[in-house]
Amino acid sequence: MEPRAPRHEPLAYVMRNGMVESVHYGSAVVLDADGAVRHAVGDPDAVMYPRSAVKPVQASAMVGCGLDLPADLLALAASSHSGEQCHVDGVLRILATESLSEDDLRNPIGYPLDTTVRDKWLAAGRPPSRLAQNCSGKHAAMLVTARRNGWSLDDYRDPEHPVQREIASLLAELSGEKVAKVAVDGCGAPLFALSLTGLARAIGAVASAADGSPMAAVAAATRTHPVRLGGSTRPVTELIKAVPGLIAKDGAEGVEVAALPDGTSVAIKIADGTSRARDAVTAAALVLAGVDAARLPALDGVDTEGGDGVTDGLRLASALIRR
To answer: One Pfam family, short name please (predicted)?
Structure first.
């Protein structure tokens, strides 16, 4: 049976001169430290694709299979990086731990995700590469994990490959859900569908994992090296820096997750797949989770341009505003 269509609700409105111009529908969920639902908007129990927001779980599964990297490279293994030189050099360092090279990667060839970095890359006449593509850290880590276990390399993206089966198993364990559907992510790796609630529960488990566990290693790495997880100018990096102990991960198609050290977690999905409202909605969910709003400038949303000035901007739906 195919998963049903989600019943999303308005999460944010784009205002112009006091009138609603556009509406971003979606779903959001806030879980307590014990995994109980504290607040829900829309349809967080509908099956969805977590996209790159699931990367901390993927990295945790690989650590559990013997991936042993310095913290900065482990954060890169969980990243959707901006393609800065530190990211490109870091991916090469990951590969070098097992005498692998860029030629072993099976992620797409691409340009840096950050537009400023991409412009400089193009101005320098550099061609697209697998190293610059934002998922190269994850793919390098998958290759290293496979090599260290004596598993095949060429098919590491196959859902039946041991690396991918370990990822699916840990995701099911931490989320408390069976994988509902298997697809191919934009980077070519398997993509395992689950509910937004299950995703929040899994990220909360990573954030609150006991010291010495694979999940705790990934959480510590992302807290310590948020630039490796995202980039110098990325909102997800600034979010991690702003809230002590927080882990967070953005994903394509309007998905984002975040969790506090006690396991309190949030997950959001913007139905139209755009990122315009994502940061503000994530920040609002974190306020509902107990984070001080003063730490979250993304609550201000985005401005609406009008000629030479700015008129109005993004307004959160009342269901996301703490009363």
So the answer is: Asparaginase_II
Q: Which domains does the chain have, with CATH numbers?
A: 9-320 (3.40.710)
With a threshold of 0.85, does the pTM exceed it? Answer: yes
The whole-angstrom separation of Cα 231 and Cα 84 is 7
H/E run at residue 206 = helix 196-207
Give residue 28's identity as a one-letter amino acid code: A
d(C-alpha 60, C-alpha 288), whole Å: 27
Q: Which two tokens stand for residue 116?
A: 């400023």
Q: Give the residues across from 306 on adjacent strands.
A: 309
b/e code 244-265 from CB counts within 10 Å (16+ = b): eebbbbbbbbbbbbbbbbebbb
User: What single DSSP character describes residue 110?
Assistant: B
For 111-145, the pLDDT digits (tens) are: 999 999 999 999 999 999 999 999 999 999 999 99
At 170-181, the pLDDT tens digits run 999 999 999 999
Residues in the chain: 323
**Residue the block writes with tokens 């503000």:** 280
